[in-house]
Specification:
With about 260 residues, the protein is of the alpha/beta class. It is built from eight helices and seven strands. It has one domain: 3-Layer(aba) Sandwich (Rossmann fold). One of its GO terms (molecular function) is hydrolase activity, acting on carbon-nitrogen (but not peptide) bonds, in linear amides.
Length: about 260
């Protein structure tokens, strides 16, 4: 935090007088929103929270914003076919997150960015939370799925044909951020079916033109290890490029909100 702009930092590590001072420089709060769920044999359960928290921290080193503690539990019923996954209902998740952000508005926060590490699966819930925060809590709120802010770079650097869950993108990011938690010797390629239903795709960057989801039974049938795609092609360099793309894009929005 010593190199961060005034007003930046982790909320959980600051005292209330320090928060009061920080609010003189920024009224923007980054909220890392993830889940605790299986990510194959090679990645830890906390991937979806580790990623947005680390990316959020890098954002605060460049742009004026506060970083909230991460939300560790999300909507993950499709991953309960492996042990260690926690899940809550859509209603519980939306209400909990709405109230977290609305309470920040009570002490001076005006802008909220929900940094979504459990992208694709949790997008519908967060879009509704953003709508409610804007209409009911008078907050300027945004949903930021990480895959959207690194998609262009991901398309350029990818070498695997499919990266759907716990594969090239997430594994690369974790190799860049927390390599000590990655077990590349356990990583294995799992190809999805050659065809998916019309207008859907088993790829994070695929042409998914309709909303769709998988159940725990579906996932159990698709993958013995828990991942879908090829994590063996992941590298720390790819991960650093993806993280930098996400941080740069998020900073554009944070800086604009500060003007």
């Amino acid at each position: 935090m010593s190199d961060a702009p005034a007003g930046s930092g982790r909320v959980a590590e600051l005292t209330w007088p320090e928060i009061e001072t920080a609010l003189e420089e920024t009224r923007t709060l980054l909220v890392p929103v993830g889940s605790t769920e299986q990510h194959g044999r090679h990645l830890p359960l906390g991937v979806d929270a580790y990623m947005p928290e680390a990316i959020g921290e890098r954002v605060t080193e460049r742009s004026p914003a506060l970083l909230a503690p991460p939300v560790w539990y999300g909507v993950s019923p499709h991953h309960t076919f492996k042990p260690g996954t926690f899940t809550v209902s859509t209603e519980t998740f939306q209400r909990y997150l709405f109230e977290i952000c609305a309470s920040a508005g009570e002490w001076g926060i005006e802008n909220v960015l929900l940094l979504n590490g459990h992208y694709l699966a949790q997008d519908p819930e967060l879009e509704i939370v953003v709508r409610r925060l804007r209409s009911e809590a008078d907050l300027t709120a945004f949903h930021v799925p990480l895959v959207n802010v690194f998609a262009d770079v991901a398309e350029e650097i990818r070498t695997g044909e499919v990266s759907f869950h716990a594969s090239e993108f997430e594994t690369s990011i974790m190799l860049a951020l927390l390599p000590e938690l990655v077990h590349m010797d356990r990583a294995e390629r799992v190809d999805p079916p050659a065809e998916s239903p019309p207008l859907t795709d088993y790829d994070a960057l695929g042409e998914n033109k309709v909303g769709w989801s998988l159940t725990a039974r579906d996932m159990d049938e698709l993958t013995p290890s828990g991942n879908i795609g090829d994590p063996t092609v992941a590298t720390a360099d790819k991960g650093e490029a993806l993280v930098e793309a996400a941080v740069s894009d998020i900073c554009l929005l944070v800086d604009d909100l500060a003007e």
